[in-house]
From TrEMBL:
The keyword Zinc applies. It holds the Pfam family RAG2. This is V(D)J recombination-activating protein 2. Belongs to the RAG2 family. The keyword Nucleotide-binding does not apply. GO terms for biological process: chromatin organization; V(D)J recombination. Zn(2+) binds at C417, C421, C444, H450, H453, C456, C476, H479. GO terms for cellular component: DNA recombinase complex; nucleus. InterPro entries: Gal_Oxase/kelch_b-propeller, Kelch-typ_b-propeller, RAG2, RAG2_PHD, Znf_FYVE_PHD. The gene is Rag2. It comes from Vireo altiloquus (Black-whiskered vireo). Residues 412-489 form the Recombination activating protein 2 PHD domain. It is found in: Nucleus. SUPFAM superfamilies: FYVE/PHD zinc finger, Galactose oxidase, central domain. GO terms for molecular function: sequence-specific DNA binding; zinc ion binding.
Length: 525
């Protein structure tokens, strides 16, 4: 193992505990930023580019038919390969407002050029026993008898509304220890209650191989313990109803918030995590899956730096191909507030790092950081730091490096706002003088509200500026008949005003001098 320190050059607070990393064809993408996305990158997805001793964040784009994906912390994610399509499944997580998501998304890379990476993000609708909103859980894909299903387990959620009190309104509890089978082909979910799973778990590790999932560690809020058990879930998918069984195996590890990275076809490395609330786990383990067996052994750990040894918390995520990005809080150590120290841990040898391996197994874990040990991070800033690395070689492109600006709302610019919308990311050119590289949008107040392009609504630039300054509700062309508000003005011919005639001056009578004298003489007689 080798540990490479990464020195920060600019603000690094965009990278916060609970983030996720996605690996597409050797390119690593960052997801789950701190705060809501900004104009510079409305998708909230960035390419982590390591080149010339600098690790930069470059904005990624969504296709026009993509849905909106909020930045989610502590979601469950895993990879899915089907029909030569490589995509990530993302479920749950926390938004920057600390709201919990119950939605499930599919992300795939549809276009890749030297200057632009474009993703397609699709939200899936589910029926049946739909899992409640949660975070700190895991999701995996299993294969049995030529079929595939996703398995979701664990996590935390907010206390139900009926049980909340004013003092503990936002308190969290363990989700019920149910196992959810999700069939994406038919869009249905089924929950299973197994007697071996008595306590809810969160921030655990799960590794899938064929029809088997191994669940290791995890934290139970109810018991205030880290589980020492090792669970083996076996899923059989016959023609009829699926069969789910659970077995408790010996040799478990009492750890929470650990990270798993895959270094070969059947070998994984377990890194980081916590033994207890104030004790990090500095020991590394190798996990080998062989047919229906699992072997866990302690491995040689890297030489941890004094900063890592003495810090109270740490966090990170799997970068893929045997590498892990680790971070420790840098408060009171750096001049930049909320800055962090970062390291890249490579669990494979130098020659193995250069090999392009096709990894067929799927591992899932949450962030290597317990929320109880962290401080809240809310604002969004740019992220750029230097590193001694030569991987992820990508041609130079425009990087995310912009000053602070107003946050964007929960919407994308390249949506189809109405039936006649003709805004296309590939053909769009600025229409208003205030536009730079994104089309102007305006919020329609109908229902829960939705965004429309000002150009599609035939708004003049004067009217658009007036609406941005006035405190009035706007309704788009589709909803103006259903709501009373400010309607898109119709173009009408200007009426010519007739000029007013000037007033005539009153004529005055001029008197001669003799007449004036005669009048005065009579007046004093």
């Amino acid at each position: 193992m080798s540990l490479q320190m990464v020195s920060t050059v600019s603000n690094s607070s965009l990278l916060q505990p609970g983030f996720s990393l996605l690996n597409f064809d050797g390119h690593v993408f960052f997801f789950g930023q701190k705060g809501w996305p900004k104009r510079s990158c409305p998708t909230g997805v960035f390419l982590l580019d390591v080149k010339q001793n600098e690790l930069k964040m470059k904005p990624a784009f969504f296709s026009k038919d993509s849905c909106y994906l909020p930045p989610l912390r502590y979601p469950a994610l895993c990879t899915l390969r089907s029909d030569d399509v490589y995509q990530y499944i993302i479920h749950g997580g926390k938004t920057p407002n600390n709201d919990l998501s119950d939605k499930i998304y599919f992300m795939s890379l549809v276009s890749k050029t030297n200057k632009k990476m474009t993703f397609q993000c699709i939200e899936k609708d589910l029926g049946g026993d739909v899992p409640e909103a949660r975070y700190g859980h895991t999701i995996n894909v299993v294969h049995s008898r030529g079929k595939s299903m996703s398995v979701l387990f664990g996590g935390r959620s907010y206390t139900p509304l009926a049980q909340r009190t004013t003092e503990k309104w936002n308190s969290v509890v363990d989700c019920l220890p149910s196992v959810f089978l999700i069939d994406f082909e038919f869009g249905c979910c089924t929950s299973y209650v197994l007697p071996e799973l008595q306590d809810g778990l969160s921030f655990h590790v799960s590794i899938a191989r064929d029809d088997t999932i191994y669940i290791l560690g995890g934290y139970s809020l109810q018991n205030n313990t880290r589980s020492p058990n090792l669970y083996k879930l076996k899923i059989d998918l016959p023609l009829g109803s699926p069969a789910v069984t659970c077995t408790i195996l010996p040799g478990g590890i009492s750890v929470s918030s650990a990270i798993v990275t895959q270094i070969s076809d059947a070998e994984f490395v377990l890194v980081g995590g916590y033994h207890s609330e104030n004790q990090k786990r500095l020991v590394c383990n190798t996990i080998v899956l062989d047919d229906s067996k699992i072997e866990i052994a302690e491995s040689v750990s890297p030489e941890w730096t004094p900063d890592i040894k003495h810090c109270r918390t740490w966090f990170g995520c799997d970068m893929g191909k045997g590498s892990v990005l680790l971070g420790i809080p840098g408060a009171n150590k750096q001049l930049i507030p909320d800055a962090n120290y970062f390291y890249i841990l490579r669990c494979k040898g130098g020659e193995e790092d250069k090999e392009e391996e096709s990894l067929t197994q799927i591992c899932s874990q949450t962030s290597s950081e317990d929320p109880g040990d962290s401080t809240p991070f809310e604002d969004s800033e740019e992220f750029c730091f230097s590193a001694e690395a030569n991987s992820f070689d990508v041609d130079d492109a425009d990087t995310y490096n912009e000053d602070d600006e107003e946050d964007e709302s929960e919407t994308g610019y390249w949506i189809t706002c109405c039936a006649s919308c003709n805004i296309d990311i590939n053909t769009w050119v600025p229409f208003y003088s205030t536009e730079l590289n994104k089309p102007a949008m305006i919020l329609c107040s109908s229902g829960a509200g939705h965004w429309v392009h000002a150009q599609c609504m035939d708004l003049s630039e004067t009217m658009l500026l007036r609406l941005s300054e006035a405190n009035v509700k706007y309704f788009c062309n589709k909803h103006i008949d259903l709501n009373k508000g400010l309607q898109t003005p119709q173009k009408v011919a200007c009426l010519k005003k007739q000029p007013m005639k000037p007033l005539r001056k009153k004529k005055t009578m001029k008197l001669s001098t003799s007449t004036k004298k005669s009048f005065l003489r009579r007046l004093f007689e």
